[in-house]
Amino acid sequence: MAIDSHMHINSIVLNDEKKYIDLINNNSAIESVINVGLDLKSSKESINISELNPKFYSSVGIHPLYIESQNLEVLYDLADNPRVVALGEIGLDNTKNNFNEQKKYLIKQIIIANELHLPIIIHSNNCNKQVIDIFKGYVKPKYGCVFHCFQPDLEDLKYLVSNGYYISFAGRITYKTAKKSIEVAKIVPNDLFLIETDSPYISPEPLRGETNETSNIKYIINKLAEVRQSSYKEVEEITNKNAKRLFRKMN
C-alpha cells in the first residue's frame, strides 16, 4: 500500500468531495494520504476530514499565493491537532509581485514549525535558491523539510540532500519532457525521496488533462522503479518508510 504524501481533497477543482474521499477510503492500494492546506479555511477543512477518515492526515499552512488577510497565529492552535503532521504548504512563488511579504510569511511559518517540532512542506515555484537563501540567512527547519513537486536543479539538490531534506516526485516525472527530473530521481538517496500525486492537479501520463486522483500514484511509482532500476514494491516500501520518518505523527 502506498502513501500519497501530498494531495488536496478539499480543492475547489473537486466538485464531489465525498466521492473522492470514498474512493480513497475504499482503495486497498492506498495506506494513507496527507491532505495539504493552502490557507486557514482549507487547513481547518483538512483537519475536519482527517478526524472523520482514518486514512487521512493533515498539514496546515499558508501557501504563498494565499497570504492576504491570513492570521498566522491561528496555526499554533490548528497544528496542535493530533492528525496534523506538518506545516505546509508554505514557500515562495514568483508569479505574484509580493515577494517580500511572501518571505515574511515563510520565515514566520518555519519558526512556528520549529516551535511545534513539526516538519515543513515547501512550495517553490522557480524559487529554490531563494528558499535556500532563507534557510541559510534567516531560519532553517529543525524537524525536517520536503520540497514538494521538486523543480530539478542538481546544485539545489546537493544542498538539500546534504541537510537531510526530502525531495518529492509527482506526475511530472512521467512526462517526456522530464529529463532533469529523471536525472534527479536517479541520484537522490534512498532515504530522502517521497511520492505524491498533488491531486487533483498534475495528472501523470497517460491521464494528462484529466482530474488527478490518488489512485494514480501507481504511475509515479512505476516510473521511479524504472528510473531507479528497482521494483514497484521496493519504491513503495522505501517511500512509505521515508514518509513516516519525516512525518513522525503518522506512526
List descriptors.
alpha/beta; 8-stranded parallel sheet; TIM Barrel; 9 helices; 8 strands; 251 residues
The number of domains: 1
Number of helices: 9
The amount of beta strand, in percent, is 15-25%
Mean pLDDT: 96
- Broad CATH class: Alpha Beta
Low-confidence stretches: none
In which range does the helix fraction lie? Answer: 25-40%
Shape: globular
Radius of gyration: 17 Å
Q: Note the main sheet.
A: 8 strands, parallel
Under the CATH scheme, the architecture is: Alpha-Beta Barrel
Following the backbone from N to C, one meets helices and strands in this order, namely: EHEHEHEHEHEHEHEHH
Strand order of the largest sheet: 1-2-3-4-5-6-7-8
Distance between the termini: 15 Å
What does this structure look like?
Helices cover 39% and strands 18% of the residues. With 251 residues, it is α/β, with parallel strands linked by helices. The protein has a single domain, classed as Metal-dependent hydrolases (TIM Barrel, Alpha-Beta Barrel), CATH 3.20.20. The protein has an eight-stranded parallel β-sheet with strand order 1-2-3-4-5-6-7-8. Helix 5 links the parallel strand 5 and strand 6. Helix 8 crosses helix 9. The chain is globular and about 40 Å long.
